[in-house]
Automatic annotation (TrEMBL):
Protein name: Pyrroline-5-carboxylate reductase
Record's GO cellular component terms: cytoplasm
Taxonomic source organism: Qipengyuania oceanensis
Family: Belongs to the pyrroline-5-carboxylate reductase family.
This protein's record includes keyword NADP: yes
Job of this protein: Catalyzes the reduction of 1-pyrroline-5-carboxylate (PCA) to L-proline.
Signal peptide (residue range): none
Amino acid sequence: MKTIDAILFVGLGNMAGAILDGWLASGLEPGRFSAIDPGRESAPDGVTLLPEAPAQGEFDLVMFGVKPQLLDAVAPTVEHVVGPETVLMSMLAGAPVSTLREHFPRAGAFVRLMPNLAAAIGASPCGLWSDDLDDETRAGITRLVDRLGSAEWLESEELFHPFTALAGSGPGYVYRFIETLARAGADVGLDPGQAERMAVQMVEGAARLAAGAKASPGELARRVASPGGTTQAGLDVLDDGDAMRTLMRECLQAARDRSVEMAGKSSKDG
Ligand SMILES: NC(=O)C1=CN([C@@H]2O[C@H](COP(=O)(O)OP(=O)(O)OC[C@H]3O[C@@H](n4cnc5c(N)ncnc54)[C@H](OP(=O)(O)O)[C@@H]3O)[C@@H](O)[C@H]2O)C=CC1
Ligand SMILES: O=C(O)[C@@H]1CCC=N1
């Protein structure tokens, strides 16, 4: 397969827009990118916004980024630009390669990607899976996706379900945690605006520290908690009856199960 130069985004919403922003911020040339999204009036400087897929020509990579429910309707409108030299990359939750293959039978290769919104700042773990890439193209995809954070190749497509639950949906849980923490801060006496600012900054600082530390998050929690001190009093509430562990397991199970359910619905042979 030839090198990946021309990239077409099909759907440029929240997630695909974050990926484009991340690639541009990492220094990729805007002229490499085109996008189709009827809901957008503009694209970043230098990126070509198309009303529809060109009648002729093929792209090296087509990044499919519409809502999963729109796959059946949108795929036929762009299939003609997905040829044997095209990598079809899909970020759709719960759309297996078997389904993508039915929609894009001429594609040279298929890659599933599971990013999160932090791709915009080059800080997203990105799940990847493919069963038909040659080594050179796989290395090219890895370099491209590493610009968004880190390329994490998964050993089986089934692992996309738990990966999506943790890393794709994860920012949603963290934002809910921050929101709830800020509200609790106001409940215990802080000004609400100040509590929200502090909650965001505290989570950012704690995450950056954990990302650069040799110690595990569990060990870091122990370092914060002085025996008999304030942190231990708070942790005792979270740990009582394994409350937090149970909540997070149920949270991830629900997200994983939904991904499995979506895959069953979108797969024609599932
Ligand atoms: N949001 C996230 O954090 C993550 C999302 N994903 C996946 O990314 C995909 C997109 O999600 P998200 O970005 O949140 O959704 P959005 O709705 O923000 O983005 C989808 C975009 O596709 C556009 N669109 C609709 N019809 C067409 C069409 N015919 N041709 C081209 N574009 C079209 C929509 O326009 P309009 O709004 O006008 O309909 C919208 O801008 C999903 O499949 C999801 O599973 C994966 C990981 C994380
Ligand atoms: O909620 C969703 O279905 C998508 C996939 C992961 C994040 N957002």
